[in-house]
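Re: [ENG-882] Designed sequences occasionally contain unexpected residues at chain ends

Forwarding the minimal case from QA. Structure tokens:
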């Protein structure tokens, strides 16, 4: 079964999210700038597109992390 471009994108996004969740580490800005610059050329995307993708990914994961911390705080506060 051939994957559509849309499905490939869904898989890639889910994979990246899981990697960041597992590592619990967001790359520092200098590393990200260097990696985005190198990757943009190799993958055929513009730097701007990769930056936008990373910003969306980091925002979503940050919101998820904040939500987890709030839940822990609620649970811990009731004890």
């Amino acid at each position: 079964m051939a994957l559509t471009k849309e499905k490939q994108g869904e898989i890639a996004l889910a994979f990246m999210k899981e990697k960041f969740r597992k590592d619990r580490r967001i790359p520092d800005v200098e590393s990200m700038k260097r990696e985005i610059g190198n990757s943009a050329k190799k993958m055929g995307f513009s730097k701007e597109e990769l930056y936008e993708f990373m910003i969306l990914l980091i925002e979503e994961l940050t919101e998820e992390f904040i939500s987890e911390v709030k839940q822990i705080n609620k649970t811990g506060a009731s004890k």
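QA comment: On inspection the terminal residues look reasonable. The chain has a mean pLDDT of 84. Proposing we downgrade this to a documentation issue.
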